């Protein structure tokens, strides 16, 4: 067991014994990573903050049901990814416009502050490419999207991703392969290259 996982378990056990300050320590340890994941999934800072907060609320209310050897990181990412997925489905049925939203061509509806360190044309090209890639990832089915985000953005191992997604390491490898194939096809079509 890694020291980080042991620390998480110590804090979880303290929370289960009624030490509410343990939740504050867990929030301090996990809030940044979970927010980063939720923001990448939702592309909205407010939604990401709300979903991360809901994840910790669920941890607080359900901590008594967790087993003594629970993989807390897997539980947190699984809970958060399910919340993100549910919200994504709800938003598809009830569309709104947020300040973090992008237009159909991938440009932000509210421009981000710029920096003079990078020439405007280079910044524009980089932003357009990032928007195209982000849009292609957003169109992946949830299981593939989740696996890509956990592997490439959160840099989790196949085993850790398997713990979160409930599939084998071989299943994670297969999902990544399928996601790369779909992304390659989507990006090739977007930039006008052949399959």
| Structural Rg | 19 Å
CATH architecture name of the domain at 1-101: Orthogonal Bundle
- Biggest sheet details: none
Query: What is the first-to-last residue Cα distance?
Result: 45 Å
Question: What is the typical, i.e. mean, pLDDT?
Answer: 84
Give the topology string: H per helix, E per strand. HHHHHHHH
Shape: globular
Counting DSSP E segments of at least 2 residues, the number of strands comes to 0
Look at the structure and name the CATH superfamily of the domain at 1-101.
RNA polymerase sigma factor, region 2, helix turn helix motif
Beta fraction:
under 5%
In the CATH hierarchy, the third-tier topology of the domain at 1-101 is known as Rna Polymerase Sigma Factor, Chain: A
How many distinct helices? 8
Which structural category fits the helices and strands?
Answer: mainly alpha
Point out poorly predicted stretches: none
Any idea of the CATH class of the domain at 1-101?
Mainly Alpha
Account of the protein in words:
By secondary structure, the chain is an all-alpha fold. It has a domain at 1-101: RNA polymerase sigma factor, region 2, helix turn helix motif (Rna Polymerase Sigma Factor, Chain: A, Orthogonal Bundle), CATH 1.10.1740.10. The protein is built from 8 helices and no strands. The chain is globular and about 55 Å long. The model has no long low-confidence stretch (mean pLDDT 84).
